[in-house]
Amino acid sequence: MADRHHRPVRVPSAHFEAYEGGPDPAVELRIAHDSARALVHRVRASDDPDLIERMVAYTDEHGLDTLAELWSRAGARSLPGALWRLSLLRALIRADPAGTALLFQRGSEVLSTADVVVAGAEAPTGPDQISDLADAVLRGAYVGDFAIALERAAAFCRTASAGAADLADDSDSVDDARAADLTTRAARLAASGRDFSACARLERAGDLD
User: Fold this and answer.
1) Secondary structure class of 123 (helix, strand, coil)
2) Is the pTM here over 0.70, yes or no?
3) Any idea where the domains of the chain sit in the sequence?
4) 13: pLDDT strictly greater than 60
5) With 0-12 CB in 10 A as exposed, 13-18 as middle and 19+ as buried, what is 106?
6) 90 CA to centre of own chain
7) Which of 21, 140, 155, 197 has a Cα at 20 to 30 A from 82?
């Protein structure tokens, strides 16, 4: 995929033609929701497999800058908020696959829940497996059952959060700065896990917008 050039997938301009004038917060929020629906529903309804690759490539190259900025302002438990957090999670994994793999692996050792299985990472968990998981979750958001993709993201966050918390305990007596950083990461991952789970429930109820 990395060796091919993909033409960016754009949201049809008709979705934005009704919006004119300055950056009204209410209008921006509406655009965030409309663009999220257009992207998810358009790609999920398509029978063109290359469309998925173009979406992933576009995210890699451009980060969906304009739309992502709008999505970031939406509530965590909304469709644009869920897409924003999925993109952030994938960016986190790809920016530090080894560190993220360590968090996930440690979490898999200390958790007694089914989260590791739900997340779907291969064992043993290494950087390549974590990157593959990130790609699979992103593709699930566009073509599979979106609720399942959200549940996998939630399970991944809970597992990595448990790993970060356990590593923070190990560092507590020898490296205060590292312990504090890991504790912060654990809290953020746990919060993302809760938001993903809530979004999955809303999606199953047909209420995620």
Assistant:
1) coil
2) yes
3) 13-204
4) no
5) buried
6) 5
7) 21
